Amino acid sequence: MICNKCPRLCQFIQKNKELYPDFFNAPVPNFGDTNGRLLVVGLAPGLKGANRTGRPFTGDYAGIILYETLLKFGWASGVYQQRKDDSLQLKNALITNAVGCVPPENKPTPDEINNCNERLKATIQSMKNLHIILCLGRISHQSVLKAFGLKQSAFPFAHGNVHRLTDDVYLVDSYHCSRYNINTRQLTQEMFDAIFEKIGSINKGFFS
User: Fold this and answer.
1) Which of 24, 77, 80, 192 is the most exposed place for a label (fewest CB within 10 A)?
2) Mean of the per-residue pLDDT values for the chain?
């Protein structure tokens, strides 16, 4: 259900309903286990990815990288086949986005990001066992800090940074696993694997 807080996004979704009537074309719900310890936060649904399939990171290049890595490190099971009805299941993890609706050119405005922060905050608060938040990109990082009511200046974004937000919750930063970042090698699979190795150390209590 569209919340009507963001007129531009509502108009864009309506346009896509006309252009692509078989697409999901609505705010994309979270995917995974609300009782999980890991929350992955992306930017927003891709037009022909999550906006088409109705599941975060499903149907676009970033999803291939993310889900194959989650499978490799034991945060998922099954087979990722780029569709909502595949056998993929998350294990002890949940995936969401800073913005729930698809934005034009994959670029939400600051107002749209702010409007969706209550949704992100509600997701975080619903996860009673939350221990680690993986932020894919700077906007995700900033949105999570806002949801916690923390100062941006005290928690700088950089790939590989780890911040302790509360006694129980750590934030881990990564460049977004987008096709552009992979193609330009700003993010490599080895770099992304290292992020998940760090997440594993935190989850096992080996990080301080």
Assistant:
1) 77
2) 96
Pairing type for strands 132-136 and 93-97 reads unpaired
Domains assigned to the chain = 34-203 (3.40.470.10)
Q: What is the pLDDT of residues 52-108, one digit of tens each?
A: 999 999 999 999 999 999 999 999 999 999 999 999 999 999 999 999 999 999 999
What pLDDT does 138 receive?
Answer: 98
